[in-house]
Amino acid sequence: MKIQKHAMTPVLEALAVACLMTAFLGATQTPERSRTEGLKETDRFIKTGGETSESVAAAKLQVQETLTTYNTLVAQPSKNMKKDYQKLMKSMDSMNMKVGDASGKVEAMQSAGDTYFQGRGDTIKNIQDQQLQGQAQQRLKDSQKEFAGVLASLRAANGALEPFRKQLADQITFLGSDLNPSATASLKPRAEKLNTEGSKVFTTADQAIAKANEYFNGLKGRAQTGS
Fold first, then answer.
1. Which of these, 75, 137, 175, 186, is most buried using a 10 Å CB contact count?
2. Residue 78 — φ and ψ, nearest 5°?
3. Total domain count for the chain?
């Protein structure tokens, strides 16, 4: 049996061409960015930066508090060593958690920065005036460079807090294995060295936190004024 081929009508041909063109354009065109998408990305980036800075500050403060509790037990005679040590262990657990949390947030901030700068770059492409577009691109590069410095500082702060936390935790664990006045006395030289190192670590953290706050507060100010 011979199958007959029917020619398409002009209407069907037009519909077929329209469908093909729609599919082609859909595959080749990038969806247009919302006019408010850049503002939302900026807000998310600023929020992430603020949370990261706060997390590093909380970690640094908890390490300081744990060191102070440790110093009290080592440097001063304790009327109830078991009770004081339990308090120290609780502080150490909080220290471990907060330093770990800060480490995760610092690394996550890199991803937030990538999203923010990518979106900002996409928005700049829509500027028709070449001179104005160039000015925007330069400001973007400057902001990226400044952010790289902020991220490096926060990583350095976290990189200093983590090994210091380990040293402090080791000395606390040592006390737990031999909780008596002679053990605390034997730790005094190490405690003095630890406190000296701690001063440097806390200064590094404070500087990184201040640098991050300055950068993100600057972004917040520009976002509010639209500059």
1. 175
2. -100, 135
3. 1
Domain holding 132: CATH number? 1.20.58
Q: Which of 163, 194, 200, 174 is nearest to 68 (CA)?
A: 194
- Domain assignment of residue 215, given as a range: 36-225
Residue 204 lies in a domain: yes
Q: For the chain, first and last CA: distance in Å?
A: 76
This prediction's pTM: 0.79
Whether 28 is in a domain gets the answer no
- DSSP 8-state code for residue 187: T
Residue range 27-81, pLDDT digits in tens: 433 445 566 677 888 899 999 999 999 999 999 999 999 999 999 888 877 788 9
Cβ(133)–Cβ(127) below 8 Å: yes
DSSP states of 99-157: HHHHHHHHHHHHHHHHHHHHHHHHHHTT---HHHHHHHHHHHHHHHHHHHHHHHHHHHH
